[in-house]
């Protein structure tokens, strides 16, 4: 890897470190595992930086590595860990993007991972549809459909919760 590419990769990792941690955490729901995933993703990024064709796609390329590393981790460990809100506050990163609405958090947790990933990448990580398609290795139209479906599922879940509260 040449020095310029190495410098750009370090800048990309440094600039997006909190976002990729949150992304990994959204998959594994455990602070230590999320840190391990980020560390492994950084190692993979440096190992395969030669395969990166365009510097402009470095961010989505790195996010893709984080997503794939998270999925590998989940497949390897085949476990679900429930984390209470207090633990999440203590171990989670401090930022503006925390769930302010507990109903939204609950609804997000109930979404299948397929849809939750699209929502997290689009609205919490602020990626464009094309970047999400690249990260998840899917067609742009597939991502649009998943996003539409996920938003509808959230809308239905959230409106059902409101109706239950009113009764």
Automatic annotation (TrEMBL):
<dbReference type="InterPro" id="IPR036388">
    <property type="entry name" value="WH-like_DNA-bd_sf"/>
</dbReference>
<feature type="domain" description="RNA polymerase sigma-70 region 2">
    <location>
        <begin position="13"/>
        <end position="79"/>
    </location>
</feature>
<keyword id="KW-0804">Transcription</keyword>
<keyword id="KW-0731">Sigma factor</keyword>
<dbReference type="InterPro" id="IPR014284">
    <property type="entry name" value="RNA_pol_sigma-70_dom"/>
</dbReference>
<dbReference type="Pfam" id="PF08281">
    <property type="entry name" value="Sigma70_r4_2"/>
</dbReference>
<dbReference type="InterPro" id="IPR013249">
    <property type="entry name" value="RNA_pol_sigma70_r4_t2"/>
</dbReference>
<comment type="similarity">
    <text>Belongs to the sigma-70 factor family. ECF subfamily.</text>
</comment>
<keyword id="KW-0805">Transcription regulation</keyword>
<dbReference type="InterPro" id="IPR039425">
    <property type="entry name" value="RNA_pol_sigma-70-like"/>
</dbReference>
<protein>
    <submittedName>
        <fullName>RNA polymerase sigma factor</fullName>
    </submittedName>
</protein>
<dbReference type="InterPro" id="IPR013324">
    <property type="entry name" value="RNA_pol_sigma_r3/r4-like"/>
</dbReference>
<feature type="domain" description="RNA polymerase sigma factor 70 region 4 type 2">
    <location>
        <begin position="103"/>
        <end position="154"/>
    </location>
</feature>
<dbReference type="Pfam" id="PF04542">
    <property type="entry name" value="Sigma70_r2"/>
</dbReference>
<dbReference type="InterPro" id="IPR013325">
    <property type="entry name" value="RNA_pol_sigma_r2"/>
</dbReference>
<dbReference type="InterPro" id="IPR007627">
    <property type="entry name" value="RNA_pol_sigma70_r2"/>
</dbReference>
């Amino acid at each position: 890897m040449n020095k310029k590419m190495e410098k750009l990769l370090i800048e990309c990792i440094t600039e997006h470190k909190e976002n990729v941690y949150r992304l990994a955490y959204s998959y594994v729901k455990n602070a230590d595992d999320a840190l391990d995933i980020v560390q492994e993703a950084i190692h993979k990024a440096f190992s395969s930086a030669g395969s990166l064709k365009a510097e402009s796609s470095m961010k989505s390329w790195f996010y893709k590595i984080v997503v794939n590393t998270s999925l590998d981790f989940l497949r390897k460990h085949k476990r679900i860990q429930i984390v209470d809100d207090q633990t999440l506050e203590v171990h989670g990163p401090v930022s503006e993007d925390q769930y302010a609405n507990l109903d939204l958090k609950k609804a997000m947790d109930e979404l299948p991972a397929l849809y939750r990933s699209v929502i997290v990448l689009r609205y919490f990580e602020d990626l464009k549809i094309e970047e999400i398609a690249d990260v998840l290795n899917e067609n742009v139209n597939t991502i649009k459909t998943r996003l539409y479906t996920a938003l509808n599922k959230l809308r239905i879940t959230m409106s059902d919760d409101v109706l239950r509260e009113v009764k």
